[in-house]
């Protein structure tokens, strides 16, 4: 896959960023990497780790997904899937639970708080002991909110993608819960890409489904799941292709990313498919 690494490096050189890394991941780990060696912020890609930690507490029998949390009528299930009805960064209620997909940092924070109460762990302990350490992500750390505070180099993000593509370290059902649509068909806004009639999410991961335009490639399957971050980061897993792709950069999400990420995703998919 040396040719793919060369293509990744060429793609990154065309991006209007100061620093960026990209890795393409198969079931056994990275198959091609362009690594500039820099540690970067994950921003909202952090939510994948936080959701996995909450789901691990659930799989451990310590927390129910039906535990009430957030506004009246909402549960952990609603909080993780951005369907509790609360606002982005406050407890303001904008809709009844289960009626709209409203992206919410606060919802993820509340879910982590509830898991912490159930396990006796702080947010940092919850994420570290239940996800980072089992996955060998020794260079990753939480620096701030569990909704957007993770940071690391590209290797740790690639380790997360490897587990999401081929789960061997986390408890059974955790990755499936993250990546399986809950409350299907809810409308809502996908940040950066506008209103979606079917804004599908799992318990922490966005599901591509029929969204268009999208931050992944048009060639990514509808079952593709993952997350992107405003810091210029993304992680997607395509179960049908048996492939994942991750990236970190020092430049905030914007028009450049909406064009560059689908393009580099297409490069990854094309190079990894048998000719």
TrEMBL record:
Domain of life, source organism: Bacteria
SUPFAM superfamilies reported in the protein's UniProt record: beta-lactamase/transpeptidase-like
Database matches in Gene3D superfamilies: DD-peptidase/beta-lactamase superfamily
Alphabetized Pfam families for the sequence: Beta-lactamase
InterPro entries reported for this sequence: Beta-lactam-related, Beta-lactam/transpept-like, Diverse_Enzym_Activities
Occurrences of domain Beta-lactamase-related (ranges): 41-260
PANTHER family (UniProt xref): BETA-LACTAMASE-RELATED, CONSERVED PROTEIN
Protein name: Beta-lactamase family protein
Organism from which the protein derives: Nakamurella aerolata
């Amino acid at each position: 896959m040396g040719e793919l690494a060369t293509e990744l490096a060429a793609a990154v050189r065309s991006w209007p960023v100061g620093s960026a890394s990209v890795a393409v991941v198969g079931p056994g780990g990275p198959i091609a990497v362009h690594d500039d060696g820099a540690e970067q912020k994950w921003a909202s890609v952090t939510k994948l780790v936080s959701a996995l930690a909450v789901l691990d507490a659930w799989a451990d029998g310590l927390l129910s997904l039906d535990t009430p949390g957030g506004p009246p009528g909402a549960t952990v299930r609603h909080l993780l899937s951005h369907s509790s009805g609360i606002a982005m960064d406050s407890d303001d209620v904008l809709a009844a639970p289960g009626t709209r997909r409203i992206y919410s940092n606060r919802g993820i924070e509340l879910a982590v708080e509830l898991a912490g109460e159930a396990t006796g762990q702080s947010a940092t302990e919850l994420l570290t002991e239940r996800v980072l350490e089992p996955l060998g992500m020794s260079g990753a750390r939480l620096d701030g909110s569990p909704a957007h505070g993770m940071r690391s180099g590209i290797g740790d993000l690639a380790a997360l993608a490897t587990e999401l593509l081929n789960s061997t370290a986390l408890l059974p059902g955790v990755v499936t819960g993250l990546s399986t649509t809950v409350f299907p068909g809810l409308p809502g806004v996908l940040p950066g890409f506008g209103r979606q009639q079917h804004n599908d999410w799992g318990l922490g991961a966005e599901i591509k489904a029929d969204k268009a335009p999208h931050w992944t490639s048009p060639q990514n399957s509808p079952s593709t799941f993952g997350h992107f971050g405003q810091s210029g980061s993304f992680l997607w897993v395509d179960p049908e292709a048996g492939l994942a792709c991750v990236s970190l950069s020092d430049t905030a999400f914007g028009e450049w990313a909406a064009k560059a990420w689908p393009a580099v995703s297409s490069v990854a998919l094309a190079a990894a498919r048998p000719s």
